[in-house]
Design a protein that fits this description.
This protein is of the alpha/beta class. It contains six helices and seven strands. The chain is 48% helix and 18% strand.
Length: 203
């Protein structure tokens, strides 16, 4: 009886822990989960001598979706976007919802050019997979962990690249330069890849 009760308590605690790290709308990992995992992934990459990249994706003009169609439709867009991101990444990658319409994708064993390609693939996936009655596009900022980075600084650099993508017209991918003196960036500073200007797929 004691053993059965203990198993029940353990199961309840595991479920509570899972819920604490899961976004209830999209079923993705949440911001707390991201903060718990990003430093560990950077440390792992250092031990293995490999790269770790971070993508930050943000839906463009999402407020207009809520204002035009209502928050229920906006929630549906977020659910659909979360599903697309989860389905389009590798098993070794992890996607998180870290803000209202902001998503983070942690890419182990991925350099700058590879991360840029993943971000562009995800951006285009928003055009190719349909559902719902409103349209949306997504901008991405890309950063690769360098010597001295922790989760906070990696996030700040990816966020700055995301801001560059937004300021350059949205529906873009921007790659953050390396901040390390003498270490050339894997892509040109502020390297912008524009997206199509018309015909976004419905989400």
């Amino acid at each position: 009886v004691v053993s059965g009760a203990r198993r029940h308590v353990d199961a309840v605690l595991q479920e509570l822990s899972r819920r604490a790290l899961t976004d209830p709308l999209t079923g993705l990992h949440n911001r707390r989960s991201f903060l718990d995992r990003v430093d560990g992934e950077i440390a792992r990459s250092r031990r293995r001598g490999t790269d770790t990249a971070l993508l930050l994706g943000d839906l463009d003009h999402f407020k207009q979706v809520n204002d035009t169609y209502g928050h229920a439709e906006g929630d549906g867009v977020l659910e659909r976007v979360g599903a697309i991101l989860r389905e389009e990444i590798r098993d070794s990658d992890t996607v998180f919802r870290v803000g209202g319409e902001e998503f983070a994708i942690l890419l182990p064993d991925t350099d700058g050019s590879g991360a840029h390609a993943v971000a562009e693939h995800l951006r285009l996936a928003m055009f190719q997979r349909a559902g719902g009655r409103c349209t949306a596009t997504m901008s991405f900022g890309v950063a690769v962990a360098v010597r001295g980075d922790d989760g906070r600084t990696l996030y700040i650099r990816a966020d700055a690249a995301l801001y560059t993508a937004k300021a350059s017209g949205r529906n873009r991918v921007a790659l953050a330069p390396s901040p390390v003196a003498g270490e050339p960036p894997l892509g040109q500073p502020g390297n912008i890849l524009p997206g199509p200007t018309r015909v976004p797929v419905a989400l």
